[in-house]
Amino acid sequence: MYVELDADVEVEVEVDADLEEVFDTEDTEDTEDTEDTETAEVTPIAAAIAKLDPDDPAQWTRGGAPQVSALEALLDRDVTSAERDAAWAAYQATPGVEAG
Question: Does the reported pTM lie above 0.90?
Answer without folding.
Answer: no
